[in-house]
């Protein structure tokens, strides 16, 4: 199982690189309900990664197999990779140019008074439904189904991947629980930087995700 976890690490790290999700939790830490909202966001993010990975696993399980070997998983991974590359190009082209005024999403203004249930839903959206994480989480499940792991072992790997993916959210939440007052200025600067460079970072990450998934798919087809 450890070798499969090692194989999943690039996908887990790519999941963790979610600038807008990190910026969102930072905004919540600066809101009127910092602790309840940020913890709810974290839980939503974790659960979404697990659930969507499970969907990917089940999807791969019902697709055609040649004995124990999935013959559709490589094609699905290749397709996910191509979609990610297309999205990367669109995201990169939409990035703000130097001197452009940054247009902030409308939901940012609502974070100031966000409730824990709303934060949970937002965390689930960023964790499993934003295009990058949706493609990656499905890719995790599809890749796991093609391994020799039992269902229980695959579930354990998914949990490990979800925890790794959530680490950039866990760190500011834990630090803020310990010393929120002293970190307010640093959190606000981090939030501004992430918002400013979100499009370029996500475009680059999506490109890497696309290459990673497509490579896995082509490797499976070649094997």
Poorly predicted spans:
none
Neighbour order of strands in the largest sheet: 1-2
User: Would you list the SSEs in sequence order as H and E?
Assistant: HHHEEHHHH
Q: Could you tell me the strand content as a percent range?
A: under 5%
Number of domains: 1
Instruction: Label the overall shape.
Output: globular
What integer value in Å does the Rg equal? 18 Å
Query: What's the tally of helices?
Result: 7
DSSP strand count: 2
Structural class, by secondary structure, is mainly alpha
Helix content: over 70%
Largest sheet report: 2 strands, antiparallel
Overall pLDDT score: 80
In whole angstroms, the N-to-C terminal distance is 21 Å
Description:
- This protein has 223 residues and is mostly helical.
- The radius of gyration is 18 Å and the shape is globular.
- It has one domain (2-222).
- Helices cover 79% and strands 2% of the residues.
- The two termini are 21 Å apart.
- The mean pLDDT is 80.
- It has helices at 2-16, 19-29, 34-62, 73-93, 116-129, 131-145, 151-222, and strands at residues 65-66, 69-70.
């Amino acid at each position: 199982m450890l070798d499969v976890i090692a194989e999943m690490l690039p996908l887990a790290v790519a999941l963790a690189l979610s600038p807008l999700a990190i910026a969102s939790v930072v905004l919540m830490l600066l809101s009127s309900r910092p602790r309840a909202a940020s913890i709810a966001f974290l839980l939503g993010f974790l659960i979404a990664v697990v659930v969507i990975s499970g969907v990917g696993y089940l999807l791969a399980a019902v697709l055609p197999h040649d004995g124990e070997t999935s013959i559709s998983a490589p094609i699905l991974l290749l397709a996910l990779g191509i979609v990610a590359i297309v999205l990367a190009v669109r995201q990169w082209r939409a990035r703000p140019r130097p001197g452009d005024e940054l247009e902030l999403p409308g939901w940012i203004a609502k974070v100031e008074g966000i409730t824990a249930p709303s934060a949970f839903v937002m965390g689930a959206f960023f964790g499993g439904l934003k295009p990058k994480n949706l493609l990656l989480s499905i890719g995790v499940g599809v890749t796991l189904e093609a391994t020799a792991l039992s269902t229980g072992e695959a579930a354990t790997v998914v949990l490990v991947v979800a925890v790794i993916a959530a680490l950039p959210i866990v760190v500011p939440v834990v630090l803020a629980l310990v010393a929120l007052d002293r970190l307010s200025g640093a959190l606000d600067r981090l939030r501004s930087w992430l918002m400013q460079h979100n499009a370029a970072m996500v475009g680059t990450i999506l490109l890497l995700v696309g290459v990673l998934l497509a490579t896995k798919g082509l490797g499976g087809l070649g094997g």
